[in-house]
Amino acid sequence: MSRKKISTTIYVTPEQSDKLKLLHDRTKVPVAVYIREGIDLVLRHYAHLLPGQLQLDTERAERASRRSVAESAKEEAAKK
Question: From CA 8, how far away is CA 35, in angstroms rounded?
C-alpha cells in the first residue's frame, strides 16, 4: 500500500489484541495490515449504504483486498 495513511486510535478487546499479536508473531505481517484489511471487508459489506460516488474507491479496495496479506507485508517491509 503506497497510499498515505492517516493515524487513528481504535480500541480492541484483550482477546482481539492477543489474537492479532499471535497472527503477527506467526506471519510477521504488521497488525495494522490486518486492521486495514478488516476495515476494507466492512466497507465492502456495507457498500450499498454508501453514496454512489464511492463506487470506484470500493472497486479499488476490492482489488487491493484480493492480494494476499503476505504480499502486502512484503511490500511494506521492502519500503523500510
Answer: 11
- Cell 487491493, residue? 64
Distance CA 29, CA 43 (A): 21
pTM of the model: 0.61
All residues at 6 or more sequence positions from 1 whose CB lies less than 8 Å from its CB, including other chains: 36, 64, 72, 75, 76
Q: What is the mean pLDDT of the chain?
A: 83
Q: Give the distance from CA 19 to its chain's centroid.
A: 16
> Is-contact 73 30, C-beta < 8 A?
yes
CB 35 within 8 A of CB 10: yes
Residue type, 46: Y
Q: What is the pLDDT of residues 41-50, one digit of tens each?
A: 999 999 989 8
pLDDT tens readout for residues 60-79: 666 666 666 667 666 766 77
